[in-house]
């Protein structure tokens, strides 16, 4: 087994960012993972292919979809009966609306947080510079 060195540079840090999780009154919890799964299902037309794109088992992908369906009161993914190529899955109107609303909330939050995150990034950079000079 060979060891592959890290591709990241020690001095290259990712920028500060905001991660959103919505806790809905129904008990549903919607965060970046479930939204990414719904987007991959829409892109690939299949729960299993959507899960594979995220390195997730079919069972885990199905459980996440079922959790959303159960808590939201309307299915977010619908099965598509197939012809010669087999069936698949697609986002329902409720699923597409959930993804759109989440992404809109995410953009608005990022816009609102940007000046604060920039200030935090500057403070981190100056703290790192002070530590290096000691």
Q: Nutshell version of this structure?
A:
This protein is an alpha+beta fold. It contains four helices and four strands.
Feature tags:
Arc Repressor Mutant, subunit A, two-stranded antiparallel sheet, single chain, 134 residues, alpha+beta
How is this structure best described in words?
By secondary structure, this protein is an alpha+beta fold. The protein is built from 4 helices and 4 strands. The protein has helices spanning 32-44, 47-53, 58-72, 93-133, and strands at residues 22-23, 29-30, 77-83, 86-91. The strands form 2 sheets. The protein has a two-stranded antiparallel ribbon with strand order 1-2. A two-stranded antiparallel sheet has the order 3-4. β1 and β2 (29-30) form a beta hairpin. α1 crosses α2 (47-53) and α2 (47-53) packs across α3 (58-72). The longest helix is centred in the last third of the chain and has 41 residues, at 93-133. The termini are far apart.
Strand content: 5-15%
Give the C-level CATH assignment. Answer: Mainly Alpha
Radius of gyration: 20 Å
CATH architecture grouping: Orthogonal Bundle
CATH domain topology: Arc Repressor Mutant, subunit A
**What is the count of helical runs?**
4
Kindly state the number of beta strands: 4
Query: Major sheet: size, sense and barrel closure?
Result: 2 strands, antiparallel
User: What is the general shape?
Assistant: elongated
Give the fraction of residues assigned to helices.
Answer: 55-70%
């Amino acid at each position: 087994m060979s060891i592959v060195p890290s591709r990241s540079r020690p001095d290259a840090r990712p920028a500060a960012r905001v991660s959103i999780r919505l806790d809905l009154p129904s008990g549903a919890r919607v965060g970046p993972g479930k939204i990414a799964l719904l987007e991959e299902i829409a892109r690939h037309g299949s729960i299993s292919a959507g899960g594979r794109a995220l390195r997730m088992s079919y069972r885990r992908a199905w459980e996440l979809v079922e959790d959303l369906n159960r808590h939201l009161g309307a299915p977010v993914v619908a099965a598509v009966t197939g012809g010669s190529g087999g069936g698949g899955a697609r986002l329902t109107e409720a699923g597409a609306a959930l993804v759109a609303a989440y992404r809109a909330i995410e953009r608005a939050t990022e816009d609102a947080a940007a000046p604060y995150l920039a200030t935090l990034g500057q403070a981190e950079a100056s703290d790192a510079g002070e530590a290096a000079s000691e």
